[in-house]
Structure formats: structure tokens, C-alpha cells
Design brief:
145 residues; 0% strand; mainly alpha
Length: 145
């Protein structure tokens, strides 16, 4: 009597170390997409995350970091001013305008630094080194683990 066995079901193949470094580097370089499109860098980083989250924790970690970092700096200023704009119809909103004016230089500096930090992350991950964005790196690592 013969027993038929079905082959084990396997998930997607894990990435090689070189591919991991390449995709992590591209996730960080996605910040440069914002220079040409204004808003699509986080979409690229999120796309890389969604493509590789189940094939490489390394790529998932760096792509999610890049995504959140870009959301913070590229969309943060817009969100601050959108809130101020919505609330300025009432006195509370008018009182928030000085706070938005004080925060604007910080966001502008962050937007100027973001491409540089993204390139540094790309270089480090291409070399196989770890890289963490300040503010979001440890949080992403905690969420993904």
C-alpha cells in the first residue's frame, strides 16, 4: 500500500542578503521621490514594505521606518497648517497660528534634512549596516517584533 503525501506548502522565498540590502537602500532612497512628485515617497516606501514584509524582516523594518519618517516630515507641516486653517474660523484656531509659526521652521528644517538622512540610510543598508531614523526607528522595531 502506498501513501501519497502532498508537498509542504511554502511561503515566498526569503531574500538574499544582497537583495535585502538593495531593497532596504531603495526604501530609504524613496525620500528622493518627494523631490519630484511632492508626495509619493511614502507610497514607494509603503509599497516596498508590502512587497517584502513576509520575505525579509530587515527590508520590512527599513521600509516601514522610511514610510513613517516621510509621513512625519513631508505631511506633518501640511497637517499642522490644515488643522490651523480649520480651527482659525474660531478663536481657538486664531490663537494656534503663533504655535504653527513657531513649528514651521522645525518642519522646514526636517524637510531639508530628510533627503540627506534617507541617503545616509540607503548607504548604510546597502553596506549591510543597521540604520534607525530618530523618533520612529525604535518604535517600528518594537511594532514589527
Amino acid at each position: 500500500m502506498t501513501v501519497e503525501t502532498t508537498p509542504p506548502v511554502s511561503g515566498p522565498a526569503p531574500l538574499s542578503a544582497a537583495d535585502e540590502r538593495t531593497w532596504a537602500m531603495l526604501a530609504h532612497l524613496s525620500v528622493l521621490v518627494n523631490l519630484f512628485t511632492g508626495v509619493l515617497g511614502p507610497v514607494v516606501a509603503l509599497g516596498i514594505y508590502l512587497l517584502f514584509y513576509n520575505r525579509s524582516k530587515y527590508v520590512a523594518y527599513h521600509a516601514m521606518q522610511s514610510f513613517l519618517f516621510q509621513l512625519l516630515w513631508w505631511y506633518g507641516l501640511g497637517i499642522v497648517w490644515a488643522i490651523v486653517g480649520l480651527l482659525s474660523a474660531v478663536v481657538v484656531g486664531i490663537l494656534l497660528i503663533p504655535a504653527a509659526c513657531v513649528l514651521t521652521p522645525f518642519f522646514l528644517v526636517g524637510m531639508a534634512i530628510a533627503p540627506i538622512v534617507g541617503i545616509i540610510g540607503a548607504i548604510r543598508t546597502a553596506q549591510g549596516q543597521d540604520f534607525r531614523y530618530w523618533w520612529v526607528g525604535d518604535w517600528v522595531r518594537g511594532v514589527l517584533n
